[in-house]
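To: structure subgroup
Subject: Chain for Friday's discussion

All,

I'm putting the inputs and outputs inline so they're searchable in the archive.
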Amino acid sequence: MAGPLKLRAEDAEDIAVISACLQDALIELADMRWLEDERRFVLVASRFAWERPRVREGKRFLYERVHCGVAFEEVTRVRMRGINRPADGGRVLELLAVSVEEGGIHLLLAGGAEVRIEVAGIDCRLKDVGEPWPVIDRPRHPGEEDR
């Protein structure tokens, strides 16, 4: 069984690895913050543990999710689209991908929402926190076969 992830990204290739680990992560809007004075953007996500093997239990498979913290450093500005913080207070967002764009890092969320994190340089850290828990549902993507 794989242990907790602890990753650091310093370039676009590293961010691609972070993106793969965070694909289909669930984030409560309240667990996403720009700490402007610290030049840091942080979030806590319920990450689907793609790297962990499924376990058969009777006629079904069990998968795992785990909480993880993610921090982006050297942040100069954060812009959100499709997110209204006061009105969406309890909203849960599904993270589809993280990518590097000129001058920033882009979080693509389901439903057309986006977060653009403008940074002076790429410095991102991801760390699993707490114990994983079993889930019976695995995120599905168009055109893929069961695994």
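Points worth raising on Friday:
The first strand starts at residue 6 and ends at 9.
The CA atoms of residues 5 and 39 lie 24 Å apart.

D.
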